[in-house]
Write a sequence for this structure.
């Protein structure tokens, strides 16, 4: 009965979404002009998009994916160079003015890797991923990068082992409450909970001398389903490569912060590079982790810390003692970015930029090539339109980035090299990365949230035959939080996520203040189990990711519409009430954060006073005693709230004026006014940056969005205020409230200037 009822709920929700879709589709283009277009140009745009859709072929994606993933193609590899040249040749054939732009970047590769259990007992980790017959490219050992973490420092350390769960700051607070000290120890953390580079960073801050990171089967192995090759999930020997550079300081080449890594660039000495780790780090598989974890004694780990390995998870320290030794070839490598341009006919100095990276840790069929081949098909479709005489109003720039995996190297160095030109010309950056079956995911600047919702309403889900917007709305109604479910029913537009870091939009948005989007499908294709391993292959992807490439075509349609509409719009399709609504949420969140910390501090101090923290067991070890925290003061958020009120008023005036213009004579402005309005709209996102940057990390200049200092990829909104509160720096929090309020007032003034252009 319960199963039958659940099915009825699913059917009802999908029916609701279908009815919404039908209602929307019964409206003619004249009834529903697109944002940035008048009625006549909307009709022309929709006709153009229909021709674009008809030109897309999934066979192209399959062929390119097989070609590009045929061999390992990491940064600086021979096949990486071949792939860049192949991609460039395709863009040239489609009519794009194409070049390969090169940068010289630091890219260490391992020469020594050793992990061994010294006591109790002896064990040496294999640190290998064996070839399997079911995966045709898994046997290319001579070309594969071994399992390692890029930008770990060299090191040779021996010490007792401590299990630290995900290795986040909160996990170390839990250890402190239990009296466990990691000073002078090697820590072992499982992947998940935060970006991998945060784990050695926080470990070093707490005095650890080495860090191991393993893939627990609870997260992406047999606990989730059958392991590869029987199923899609990580097998016992699979391990996750990845960068551990301190990218929350700055991404890109560690030796050239803030400037392009050109041949003659002034570089830091390696010993002075601030984004390298402070302790040696190495990733391992769960077959290699099992003997190490079994040898740890001490307190039993909290329930939330326990993975799915067949053992009782203990924290330690010891008696497990581990020897970790790593050494690297600290070489320079050539990053090759493919840059392809289709010149605009009316506003060539306004650039619509679209990107996806082409480098991988090994063969990279899912990450990144599933997104790369969809972007290529999208570009081929635009090339076909251009051959029939169509020309975009604005210049379109397609970018296939190199060196994303080690630390967003190719995109960051290109942005830093061309920063002045991009600040002047770039109207939007549209990113994708991995792609698979499932739901459309959208993150980005909320100034273009309304625009991208329009795009999502006009793309049909290949399996459900309703719009991808309605499918996502149905999902939120069925599975979302109470607030998400309410909004999915009542709010006209679906909220898009805010951007932190983790892909090539970072330099555009966070450094230069260029409005950005990140697009991709997923949630039903199972690709996470082979992430950054040798098994991320064509064989795996075509079994478990997107077998018929239907969602690759959906991504091409989504990215293609986004590019076409930005390139062809009469005026840039910005709108601001959605943005001010989101900023309002962020202002309320930082206020609640201070209140929640006040309550948590009282509870923590009560536990310490009552001595209810966990006692320790081994008298030979040194343990820390928890100390109470200082009370949380009441902060003055009035400047922020006043700035928010002004922003909301400015946003409402712009959107209302836009609607009035659209209703009066189709909203047609003179070409000169349209161009002036474009320039004013571009400045609204530029107004969100501060040249001083965030405290202690000036490269990150955006004041509304940034990756968290201790999340790595995960976003922190109003980051300067939020992180000052989280770090209990109350003086800085008060200062940043005033500074960010000033930023919000500047944004409101920039919106007012755009409104004036429409009058």
């Amino acid at each position: 009965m319960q199963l039958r009822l659940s099915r009825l709920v699913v059917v009802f929700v999908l029916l609701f979404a279908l009815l919404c879709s039908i209602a929307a589709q019964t409206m003619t283009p004249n009834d529903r002009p697109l944002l940035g277009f008048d009625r006549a140009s909307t009709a022309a745009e929709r006709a153009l998009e229909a021709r674009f859709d008809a030109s897309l072929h999934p066979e192209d994606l399959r062929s390119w994916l097989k070609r590009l993933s045929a061999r390992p193609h990491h940064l600086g590899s021979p096949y990486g160079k071949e792939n860049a040249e192949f991609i460039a040749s395709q863009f040239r054939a489609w009519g794009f003015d194409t070049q390969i732009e090169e940068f010289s970047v630091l890219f260490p590769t391992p020469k020594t890797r050793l992990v061994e259990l010294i006591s109790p007992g002896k064990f040496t980790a294999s640190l290998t991923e064996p070839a399997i017959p079911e995966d045709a490219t898994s046997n290319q050992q001579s070309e594969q990068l071994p399992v390692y973490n890029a930008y770990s420092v060299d090191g040779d350390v021996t010490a007792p082992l401590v299990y630290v769960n995900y290795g986040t700051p909160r996990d170390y607070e839990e250890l402190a409450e239990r009296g466990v000290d990691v000073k002078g120890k090697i820590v072992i953390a499982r992947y998940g909970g935060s970006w991998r580079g945060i784990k050695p960073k926080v470990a070093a801050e707490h005095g650890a001398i080495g860090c191991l990171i393993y893939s627990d089967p609870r997260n992406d192995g047999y606990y989730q389903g059958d392991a590869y090759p029987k199923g899609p999930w990580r097998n016992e020997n699979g391990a996750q490569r990845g960068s551990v550079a301190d990218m929350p300081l700055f991404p890109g080449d560690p030796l050239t912060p803030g400037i392009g890594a050109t041949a003659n660039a002034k570089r830091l000495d390696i010993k002075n590079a601030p984004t390298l780790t402070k302790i040696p780090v190495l990733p391992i598989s769960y077959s290699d982790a099992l003997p190490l974890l079994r040898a740890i004694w001490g307190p039993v780990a909290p329930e939330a810390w326990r993975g799915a390995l067949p053992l009782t998870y203990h924290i330690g320290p010891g008696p497990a003692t581990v020897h970790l030794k790593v050494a690297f070839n600290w070489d320079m490598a050539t990053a090759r970015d493919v840059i392809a341009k289709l010149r605009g006919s009316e506003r060539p100095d306004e650039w619509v930029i679209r990107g996806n990276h082409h480098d991988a840790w090994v063969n990279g069929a899912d990450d990144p090539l599933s997104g790369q081949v969809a972007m290529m098909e999208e570009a081929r479709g635009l090339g076909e339109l251009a051959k029939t005489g169509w020309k975009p109003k604005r210049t379109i720039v397609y970018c296939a980035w190199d060196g994303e995996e080690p630390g967003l190297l190719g995109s960051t160095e290109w942005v830093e090299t061309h920063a002045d030109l991009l600040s002047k010309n770039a109207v939007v950056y549209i990113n994708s990365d991995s792609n698979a079956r499932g739901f459309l995911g959208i993150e980005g600047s909320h100034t273009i949230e309304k625009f991208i919702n329009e795009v999502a309403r006009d793309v049909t889900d290949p399996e459900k035959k309703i719009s991808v917007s309605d499918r996502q709305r149905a999902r939120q109604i069925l599975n979302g939080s109470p607030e998400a479910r309410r909004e999915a029913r009542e709010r006209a537009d679906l909220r898009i996520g805010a951007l932190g870091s983790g892909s090539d939009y970072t330099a555009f948005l966070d450094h230069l203040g260029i409005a950005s989007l990140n697009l991709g499908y997923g949630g039903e294709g199972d690709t996470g189990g082979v992430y950054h391993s040798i098994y991320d292959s064509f064989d795996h992807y075509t079994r478990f990711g997107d077998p018929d490439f239907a969602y690759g075509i959906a991504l091409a349609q989504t990215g293609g519409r986004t590019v076409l509409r930005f390139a062809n719009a009469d005026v840039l399709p910005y709108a601001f009430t959605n943005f001010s609504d989101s900023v309002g949420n962020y202002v309320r969140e930082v206020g609640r954060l201070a209140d929640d910390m006040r309550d948590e501090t009282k509870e923590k101090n009560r536990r310490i006073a009552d001595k209810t923290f966990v006692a320790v067991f081994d008298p030979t070890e040194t343990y820390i005693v928890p100390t109470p925290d200082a009370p949380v003061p009441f902060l003055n958020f009035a400047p922020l709230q006043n700035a928010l009120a002004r922003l909301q008023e400015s946003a409402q005036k712009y959107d209302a004026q836009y609607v009035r213009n659209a209703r009066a004579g189709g909203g047609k402005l003179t070409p000169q006014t349209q161009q002036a309005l474009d320039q004013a709209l571009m400045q609204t996102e530029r107004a969100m940056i501060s040249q001083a940057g965030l405290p202690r990390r000036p490269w990150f200049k955006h004041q509304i969005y940034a990756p968290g200092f201790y999340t790595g990829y995960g976003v922190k909104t109003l980051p300067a205020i939020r992180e000052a509160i989280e770090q209990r720096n109350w003086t800085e929090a008060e200062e940043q409230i005033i500074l960010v309020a000033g930023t919000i007032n500047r944004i409101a003034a920039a919106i007012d200037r755009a409104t004036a252009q429409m009058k």
User: Anything to note?
Assistant: The first strand starts at residue 97 and ends at 106. Confidence is low (pLDDT under 50) at residues 1-14, 16-30. The radius of gyration is 26 Å.
